[in-house]
Fold each of these.
Amino acid sequence: MPSFLDPLAGFGVSFRTIFKKTMTESYPEHPHPVARRFHGRHQLNRHPDGLEKCIGCELCAWACPADAIYVQGSQNTEDARFSPGERYGSVYQINYLRCILCGLCVEACPTRALTMTNEYELADTTRASLIYEKGDLLAPLLPGMEAPPHGMRLGDDERAYYLGAGLVSATNTSGGGAESAAGQEGGS
């Protein structure tokens, strides 16, 4: 091919796209919707009465391949109860400078305390502001919830609390409930 045609080949992309309709995205005003199962910013969930679901087990920190999560567990007392179990996460930090948003921490959580939202705008101007503390990660209090610390409102013991007070009382009044049915099924 002669060398005098090389500039025409170089401008080929320009000539092909010059008459196409331009598509402008107005991102800050109208953000693009994300997929339903998109992994975005983390959230620490609460029970329906406002107590935290996190029990400070640190399994999410162990599962994180980027070492972006730091959890420090503490003991609950009857005077200061933050979660229904024996422990709660007194310090919870996620470093979004390291986080790769893989979701392994969510899979490792035994109480479904940690989930991922669809929020993807995590950019900021300082490095320190990208280390989210427990207060930044906790789900907001909904109507009917009470800010911890307070006593358990959904049941008298941990089992009733995790299963739901209404479900446990209904199975206990029916004479054994799901436990006896499961035992009979396994023994048959």
Amino acid sequence: MRALPLALLLAAAMPMANPAWAQTTSPPAPSAPAPSADERAVAEVFAKAQSALAQRRGATAVGLLSSGSVARLNAIREAARSGDGIRLGKLEPAERFAALGLRRNLSSTELRRLDLGGLADHALEKDWLGPNVIRQAALGPIRVRGDRATALLMVNNRPAIVQADFLREPAGWRIDLTNTLMIGNQFLKGFAAMNNKSEDAYIEELLNKIPVKK
């Protein structure tokens, strides 16, 4: 993980028309129900985020995240900036990995100067996320339940490990990274145990395998 976990978002599926020959042998398939206002709003925030990432406007993408997501990402940024062992130790493993990765890829001056939006801009400018991840992302059917929504996240036409989560906040629908971070923590803990290493030792091993990209 060389970048903040922003890899999120967009979709819009173009309905496929029945070919003319098929219409002569069977009736057309029933039309899919029109998306609800909430489903359209969720798809719109996803589209805005993907457009912002494609245009390297990281701060704009950060503004489309849920308040809880921003708080957790800021905790990573603050831990990276301070380098304090106690603060780093309070982070979950995937978040600690991200904080230590920031410390390896950014100077102390940059860490003090950049806010979360600035870090996102820097990550996109340096291609930490990778342009293909942004271009190949798509959103599957959206399911809205109250103030939460989920959708299958597709990358290069294949389901991603994590789904896309959304949360309705006073400012509107926002992308929620809570489950993405939780799954990352579970994976890192599991791989550390499989390799008979402590979390810190496994994190260090992973970081040493990733080239520094300033």
Amino acid sequence: MSNPTYYETMYILRPDIPEEEVESHLKKYSEILVKAKVEVLDNQMRGKRRLAYPIGKNKEGIYVQLSHKGNGQQVALLEKAMRLSEDVIRYLTVKQEGPLPTPKASTKEEEEKKEKSQENSKSKEDASNSEKKSESKEQSANTNKKDAGNAE
């Protein structure tokens, strides 16, 4: 049994473009592959990261990973579209063999999970802060009683 073959394209967008435009690039390159009758396995925005070396005047970039399954002809179409775009500062397509990648949770789902975890941690912090405040009030009340007893 041979392992299935698929392609991973990693591309870097300029860091100064707005998030809406990043989303439009994600859709644009996925649509190019769909028009070429290729299966898009996964499309992930990896976030803004510092580059290993400056590319042009950019020291940071927005990384995006696109996994797709096809006969290989789609790579030329995809890379030509990326080459013509001023927003893409680097791209690389690698042929992979092995188990197909499982799609990760979408960025919106990840953001919701992060927000929920932050809300939970804030509520825990608030609870611990209120406990600390009540403990400090008790300590100050005990100190005041001692001071009042010493004054007599």
Amino acid sequence: MKIRKVGLSDWQELREIGIESYVPHYSQMWKLNGLEWYLNRCFGDEFLQKEIIDANVEYYIISSAKQNIGILKLVLSKSLPDSDIENALYLEKLYFIKEWTGKGAGRELINFVFERAQKINCDCVWLVAMDTADKPIRAYEKAGFAIHSHKLLDFELMKSEFKGTFVMKKCFENNGS
């Protein structure tokens, strides 16, 4: 598995693999026109180009020997909600194409995220997981994350039964609780 940091010239490739990896897993969560709204919000041309040049954001394309298999998005400095931990890395997106889900690639990426966070001296890594996503939650817990809080997403076009999320955190030794 290869983890490649995205540059501005890669934005179209990032958009393609982002959409390909998002749609099969999450399209059922959206009301009419919601999926298109969300894809434009997260993978629209202007949005991606702006984010790729943001020094606080890093995107990665994950590939196997034969194909792109997923994306990773990190926000290098974003406070952990409902806490006094300001020096935290936010793991915003970790998406795989359907056939790569559950094959262990996520574990390798989580380790990469932890190493990246420690390299830039973050106290904590946090993420948001759908509270209905039992398998990912168990995988995050196995990787060392703990549930920190519960919150509801405020996306109007999202079906209400999918709005619940857990904020999960992994703090490093002597760096928060």
